[in-house]
Write a structure and sequence with these properties.
Number of domains: 1
Number of helices: 8
Order of helices and strands: EHHEEHEEEHHHEEEHHEEEE
Helix content: 25-40%
Largest sheet: 7 strands, antiparallel
Strand content: 25-35%
Mean pLDDT: 94
CATH architecture: 4-Layer Sandwich
Strand order of the largest sheet: 3-2-4-1-10-9-11
Structural class: alpha+beta
CATH class: Alpha Beta
C-alpha cells in the first residue's frame, strides 16, 4: 500500500513535514509502523499550492524511493506552501512509472490514495468506460487510484466532493459485486481544490487502512504553551496523515471507520461516509 499526508494552514517549508519529524514521511518510506508494507519505495510525489492564493498546484513526482532522491530534498528545503499533499508509494501491481505516482492533478485539483481496488484488472474496463469522455484524455497512468479520481470528477467532485466520492465508491462496489469480487474497495483518500481539503477513510470490509488527524491547534497551544514549533502555527492549521509523525501526547486522533472529514476555514467537518450507487 502507501503512506500520505495532507497539510493546510500556516505556510511552512515542505521539509518541516517530509524530513524533520521523528516519524516523517521520508522515515515512513523506509520503515512504516502501521502500513501493510514496511517499505514504500515505488515512487513518491508532492503537490503544493502557492502562498499567494489558490491556483493550479505545482507537482513533483519520481519513480525512485523518496529517501534517496536529491531533487526532492532540494525542493522540500526551498519551497514554502500553505497547502500541500505528499505521498510515498508501494505498488499493488501496476507499473512503477511517473504517471502512476501520486498525487494526481486535474486543473486546480489534487488527489491521492492509499489502498486498492481488488482484482482491478478484471474491473478496470467497466470502470474506465464510466469516466466522462471529456475527462478521459487527461488520464495518463494505469493505476486504480487515478481511475478513482476521474470517476469522482465524472460524478461531480468539483461541485459536491463527498457525494461524488460516495458515488465513485458505490460504482466500484457494484461492479465488484457483478464480477464476484469480495470486498472490492479499500481506501484512504485526500483531495483538494487549493482551498479546502476532503479526506475519506473507507473499505468494503469495514477494516480500513490507518488514518489520523491532528488535534485542533488551539488546544495544542494550551497543552504545550512552551512548544516553539506549535506557537508559530495558526489555529486554522490542520494535518491528516496515514501515520502520526511524532509521539506528542494528545496531538493525534484516529479518523473513525467509514468517515469523511473536511478541512476548511472556520469549523472543520467530520461525518459518516456512505457509498451510493450512481
Amino acid at each position: 500500500m502507501c503512506r500520505w499526508l495532507a497539510y493546510s494552514g500556516t505556510p511552512i517549508r515542505l521539509e518541516e513535514l517530509l524530513y524533520k519529524p521523528r516519524f516523517s514521511l521520508i522515515d515512513q518510506s523506509m520503515h512504516s509502523r502501521l502500513g501493510v508494507e514496511t517499505t514504500n519505495g515505488d515512487g513518491f510525489g508532492v503537490g503544493w499550492y502557492p502562498v499567494d492564493g489558490p491556483a493550479e498546484p505545482a507537482l513533483m513526482r519520481g519513480v525512485g524511493p523518496a529517501w534517496s532522491d536529491a531533487n526532492l530534498r532540494e525542493v522540500a528545503r526551498s519551497t514554502v506552501s500553505p497547502l500541500f499533499l505528499a505521498h510515498i508509494r508501494a505498488s499493488t501491481g501496476t507499473a512503477v512509472q511517473q504517471t502512476n505516482c501520486h498525487p494526481f492533478r486535474y486543473q486546480n485539483w489534487l488527489w491521492q490514495h492509499n489502498g486498492a481496488i481488488r482484482d482491478f484488472a478484471r474491473l478496470k474496463r467497466d470502470l474506465v468506460l464510466a469516466v466522462d469522455p471529456d475527462l478521459y484524455p487527461a488520464m495518463t497512468g494505469s493505476t486504480d487510484s487515478e481511475v478513482m479520481f476521474y470517476l469522482a470528477l465524472t460524478f461531480g467532485l468539483r461541485d459536491r466532493p463527498i457525494a461524488a466520492i460516495e458515488r465513485m465508491a458505490g460504482l466500484v462496489e457494484s461492479v465488484g459485486r457483478a464480477y464476484g469480487v469480495p470486498d472490492p474497495l479499500q481506501m484512504t483518500v485526500a483531495t483538494t481544490d487549493g482551498d479546502r481539503v476532503w479526506c475519506v477513510r473507507y473499505s468494503t470490509e469495514g477494516h480500513s487502512r490507518s488514518l489520523f488527524y491532528s488535534t485542533a491547534t488551539s488546544a495544542l497551544h494550551k497543552l504545550y504553551p512552551e512548544n516553539k514549533q506549535l506557537a508559530r502555527l495558526s489555529d486554522e492549521t490542520r494535518l491528516v496523515v496515514s501515520e502520526p509523525l511524532g509521539e506528542l501526547e494528545g496531538a493525534w486522533q484516529p479518523v473513525p471507520e467509514s468517515s469523511y472529514g473536511v478541512i476548511q476555514k472556520g469549523d472543520d467537518e467530520l461525518g459518516r461516509f456512505e457509498p451510493a450507487v450512481p
